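== Sequence and structure of one protein ==
=== Format: two labelled lines per protein ===
==== Data for this protein ====
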Amino acid sequence: MTDGRTAPVAFACRGPPAMKEHSTDDRRTASPTTTFRPRTQTTGVTRLRAFLVEDSPLVIETLSAALEEMADVQIVGCAITEEEALSWFGSRTDGCDVAIIDIFLQSGSGLGVLDAMRAFAPPPQRVVLTNYSTRDMRARCKELGAEEVFDKSTEVEELMLWFQEQQAA
């Protein structure tokens, strides 16, 4: 942009919903090759960049809106399969600060994403947001490197608080 503002960031989501570009002044179709900005500053607090690994269009839309509004998190993209997620993470060394990962995906699994991300140097922070948050699943996710595991049905508020704590740290 030529007016001195930073360029918009792509919210590249393969599959539903359609690819979107988020900006403070407009929303338009983005190219899958759009470059991502590093962390941004808002009101003296570092704004975290998050990538969603989720296959439900409804969850993607509502969670994205909630995170951006309630926790001031910038959503930089999403993937609906394990393969898409690993492709995105593998092609960007600093694409996001936090990955929000569901366990059950359209293809593959969030556990596969967590396992593969352990090899990244350094990996982004990883949190799991799932409807399958049994004690055993929580333990397995933490073994694979998840900082926290939240239940989609009952712990979304706790997820928002976790992001707010990360922003303040």
Remarks:
- Residues 9-168 form a domain with the Rossmann fold fold (CATH 3.40.50.2300).
- The first strand starts at residue 9 and ends at 13.
